[in-house]
Amino acid sequence: MAHSAFLFTNSIMEKPQLITENDFNDVCNYLNNRNYSTNLEDIAASKTRKPSETAHGQMINANTYQIKIDGVTTYKTSTMQSLCGSGMSYQALKQQADYVAKTPSIKNVVLSISSGGGEAMGCFAAAQYFKDTVKGSGKNIITYVDERACSAAYAWACVGDEIIINPEGEAGSIGVVTRLIDQSQALDKAGIKPIFITAGADKVPFNQDGSFKQDFIDKLQASVDKTYTKFVEHVSTMRNLDAKIIKDTQANVYDADEALKLGLVDKIMDVEEFNIYINDGSEQQQVQQTQQQAARYTQQVQMKQNMLNALKNNRLL
N- to C-terminal Cα distance for the chain? Predict the structure, then answer.
């Protein structure tokens, strides 16, 4: 069937993902519908939209650049983004970091986040690259959680020097998920018996009846655990939080007040308050820059005057 996406389904369901359970279920249910539905209306409804190839930021005041992370997050522009109709890739965010670093007029970067997370692949390395690149160029990073920053999106929120959350926002879901569908009983009821002819014991993850091998499940659990350890270390380092505090969250999602108490965020502001906060900071920076320029000019004038006085004293004029 031209509309099916079996290969992509396997890549999503059999790999660790950093995404909330509800969002992950939406993606998985969508894929199952697309793969197995014979209803033309269902197929038409599952048409994907092509996501943007690059991240787009914008200046929101004289020296502050805003980057929005909305929707699903992915390693690179992918089918997963298309499924959700929006999103942001880690590669595009790295490009934005490069742009910010080489643009002198940008002094502050705002990461505005409304996302339930996405792929684990490349998430932590890209977030570290973003922070190192932007901070290495002397810029400030401020994260604003507008709606939610969960799972992979929270991993990105952590790159900020401070995390500010909307009073109605949510943060957390510091955990890992993947999903398998055992179709062995469905195949048995349908009178279908899968036969695998392989070379190499682990070539396929299935037993002869179509159920998953326990060894495959154990390996997948080990992969999930490994990714979880990396996630905890990432948050612990970025937020200077004890790893036990992070693990004790048990991947729960917290409202603004709870997130603040746990140290997952630093401040609570609504959108209007945050805009004032950002613009006040920008104005202060402009005043400081003006004062520094005036001081340099005064110093240059004084140096010239000193040279003239020295020349007069030496009767060179």
Answer: 93
- pTM for the structure as a whole: 0.76
Cα 193 off chain centre by = 42
6-180+213-269 maps to which CATH number? 3.90.226.10
* Rounded (10°) CA dihedral 207, 120, 19, 8: -50
Q: Hunting for tokens 């040279």 — which residue is that? A: 307
Beta bridge partners of 61: 64
Per residue in 37-77, pLDDT (tens digit) is: 544 444 344 444 444 444 579 999 999 999 999 999 999 87
**Backbone dihedral region for residue 140 (phi beyond 0: left; psi -120 to 50: alpha; all else: beta):** beta
Locate 54 and state its tokens.
Answer: 């690059």
CA atoms within 13 A on the CB side of 181: 13
User: Residue 75 is encoded by which pair of tokens?
Assistant: 């390693």
